[in-house]
Amino acid sequence: MAESEEEVDVLVQRVVKDITNAFKRNPNIDEIGLIPCPEARYNRSPIVLVENKLGVESWCVKFLLPYVHNKLLLYRQRKQWLDREVLVDITCTLLLLNPDFTTAWNVRKELLQCGVLNPEKDLYLGKLALTKYPKSPETWIHRRWVLQMLQKECSPAGSGQKEQQGQVEPQGEAERSWHTERLQRVLQEEMRVCADAAGRYPSNYNAWSHRIWVLQHMAKGNLKILHDELSSTRLWVSMHVSDHSGFHYRQFLLKSLLGELGQSWERLQSGALNLSPLPLADALQVHRSNGDGTAGAADDHASAVPQLFHEEMELCTDLIESYPGHETLWCHRRHVFYLWHHWRKNSQGTGPQSPVLTHTAALLSEASDPHNEGRSSQAMDVDCVPDSSKHGGYTQNTKRLKRGPVPPCPGLPSEHLFVSRILSSCRSPEQGRFANAYRKWLDSVIGQ
Amino acid sequence: MGGNRRTRRKPTQTQGKHANSTQKGPWSSDSATLDSYKSDKYKFSIKAFSVLTSLSHLTCCVVCCQCLDASRPWLCYWILHSLELLEEAVPAAVVSDVCQFLARCQSPTGGFAGGPGQHAHLAPTYAAVNALCILGTEEAYNVINREKLLDFLYSVKQPDGSFVMHVGGEVDVRSAYCAASVASLTNIITPTLFEGTHNWILSCQNWEGGLGGMPGLEAHGGYTFCGTAALVILGKEHMLDLKALLRWVTSRQMRFEGGFQGRCNKLVDGCYSFWQAGLLPLLHRALFKDGDVTLSLSSWMFEQQALQEYILLCCQNPAGGLLDKPGKSRDFYHTCYCLSGLSVAQHFGNQDLHHELVLGKEENRLAPTHPVYNICPEKVAQAIQHFHQLPIPAQKGATACAEDQS
Q1: pLDDT top residue among B61 and B335
Q2: Chain A contact set for B246 (CB, 8 A)
Q3: List of residues 6+ apart from B23 with CB closer than 8 A
Q4: Where is this region: Disordered (chain B) (predicted)?
Q5: Using the beta-carbon criterion (under 8 Å), do B406 and A106 form an inter-chain contact?
Q6: Is B381 in the A-facing interface, judged by CB distances under 8 Å?
Q7: Structural domains of chain A sorted by starting position, each given as residue range(s) with its CATH number in brackets
Q8: In a mutagenesis test of the A interface, which of B248, B266, B405 is the best target, namely the one with the most A β-carbons within 10 Å?
Q9: Of these residues, B236, B266, B328, B370, which one is catalytic?
Q10: How far apart are CA A394 and CA A401, in angstroms?
């Protein structure tokens, strides 16, 4: 057992080296953990690597942590110089043991800024730290700093700088697309990291907030991603029916989609917008990149919204019926209905002004007609309500913008019917209470 | 741990256990297990907080664990506020020691840091100023360098009205509250300091009625309190959708436990006794100012009794101190906020109109707390009176300092 200062020194250096070597040996490490092990047994390293899991035996932490912590602080106070490689290894060790240690993240920021550290490597360290500490606020905060840095690097201005340094125009083009691809990969990885962290801790506010931030900052106006995220989280929320944060994320996606679709639609309608306008060409381009390829963007936009709401309400209905007594589901229903209700009210305010919008206007008047619900069954399009939604949508098939007949639109009467149905058949007292509260809410907030 | 509490004031009109409350919340129907407690008086008593331990923590500013190394002014505030709620005096020598320690936490460029030698940060700044106002001596007030504090606030102010928590740091709604709190107490509010801030805070209110950490995020108890209290300080609370907020926060009281949760479908936690329940006094006052005549003149719009029972029965450590929920360990943060919530639940109104509901023995009565600053109202008044005799410091530019990050 190490006791003297020298022995501790030797031990710690060996451990730090073992951790570094573990990463070199296996670049696919995907999880870290602490192995409860109060005493050192045999004369072997406390670093254990099994398949893709990296473990640290707990006995060494009390030596390791204060030592590397102190070393870093001495460096920070400029009392002891450490070269870059050592800094990378030391901060890595520290943050795997305690990712809320801001100073260590800040050292890594400096290393990133001078190019010693690669951003993807740093994000990878954060990802590992989150497998053990899925909420760690400092890890998420640092991540956003790295992502912002990456964005700047990959922006046209960033690559423009490099062009000034002597690169030729044609290479600029290739570089631009490389940057775009890089950002895309990073973005997809962020979604995965968030989903993973969300699964490791219920209602993980920090993970879901980060996910929202990434979309707000790295996917502005990107309809495709918003749709993809709706698809990919559908299954997740169906398996976490009390996770309010997960459902709130879907509410954010819906609202963003509304915003984006609404903007392009309003743009088509009239010239004036009080929102920051998405230029028409861009709106259509973004829309086309969704892969639909059909003409009549306005029609697609118009029918997309009721479709979205219909699907979300169906999902909500299915989950409420399958899992009685979960407040989150009822809360989600309120939000979706609230959004829908207000979108309808706002859309009705703006009358049709072009032939393209007649269909839309008809759509809206149908939607607001309380007796509309049965009409869609006469639809020419037999599969206007996809099978998967009948089965609760447990597949991850993307429902793209569809042209075609109007799906049944939620309205106050249909919601009241829903509540009555639940109340008449439910046996859970909580479910009954939530249903009654929902009814009261419909009357006092929506019905006004 | 025997309490040394003397009855310092004549008995107030406490209503005893299970008062004839006209509140018919869901709680009153779950009376099966409660009946057995009615006869056990002692179970409702607040065990004496381990005064000596807390004082020693205060003087040495012992760091409990590494993660609190950047929170030492917080420890001072949590402990001092707990002691003032329990009406325990702090010895003069300790008062002076704490002042000197906090002075060492003050940054040369303004604001307070988590510890000596660290960078200034809005959270420990809030805690330090509150702690100094609780101490309330001339020495305490003089610790604060008001000119530099104003510089610091400008250095973290953002063009959109929000504040970052520290130079180069992140934005969230807590920062607005910390800034508004310290600026209003120390009288350093200039015409431009909070330009745009109220609009930014308002954009954090979402459809649920609560406020998120930033615009677009999920409503959350802690952030909701910070945003609302900041708006109250700025005089703009009426711009919130008060009814939606009221609906949201009242739904956060747990019908079985009696305590509050931080968000929909989450577990109860003792600290939300303040962050959530503490919203009701703010809302009550705001709605009253709006002209609502249906408001109660004797109780807040939450089940006060139930909250007191949760805190007294479930949140106490037998060795002193309070906690999140049974099974969790005690800490000074939970001690501070459980006691604060208990105080809110015991006291309705203000000096002019005051109605008490103290569950259990008279000994359980805590001092009232100010619903905006969460220090005792007399300390707020005293501090404001002191600092308003001083002129507002000259306004420097609103540019961010390029502070050395290392």
Answers
A1: B335
A2: none
A3: B299, B303, B304, B305
A4: 1-30
A5: yes
A6: no
A7: 222-268+308-344+410-447 (1.25.40.120)
A8: B266
A9: B266
A10: 19
Note the pLDDT tens digit of each residue in B104-125.
999 999 999 998 888 999 999 9
Distance CA A18, CA B132 (A): 48
Could you read off the pLDDT of B270-301 as tens digits, one per residue? Answer: 999 999 999 999 999 999 999 999 999 999 99
Q: What is the pTM of this model?
A: 0.81
Active-site residue, from B121, B324, B373, B376: B324
Secondary element (H or E) of residue A53: strand A53-57
**Residues of A contacting chain B (CB within 8 angstroms):** 65, 69, 76, 98, 100-102, 106, 109-110, 141, 144, 202-203, 205, 208-209, 212, 216, 242-245, 248, 251-252, 326-328, 331, 335, 338-339
Q: How many residues does chain B have?
A: 406
Largest CA distance in chain A: 86
pLDDT in tens, B139-188: 999 999 999 999 999 999 999 999 999 999 999 999 999 999 999 999 99
B220 is catalytic: yes
Q: Which two tokens stand for residue A441?
A: 């809410």
B271 is catalytic: yes
Burial class of residue A40, CB neighbours in 10 A (0-12, 13-18, 19+) = middle
> Cα distance from A74 to chain B (closest Cα, Å)?
12
Q: Are A311 and A387 in contact (CB under 8 A)?
A: no
CA A165, A170, A173, A176 torsion-angle sign: negative
Best mutation target among B208, B224, B242, B264 (most A Cβ atoms within 10 Å) is B264
- Given pLDDT bands bounded at 50, 70 and 90, which one contains residue A406? low
Residue B208 contacts A where some CB pair is shorter than 8 Å: yes
A344: pLDDT confidence band, cut at 50, 70 and 90? confident
Gyration radius (Cα) of chain B, Å: 21
ipTM above 0.85, yes or no: no
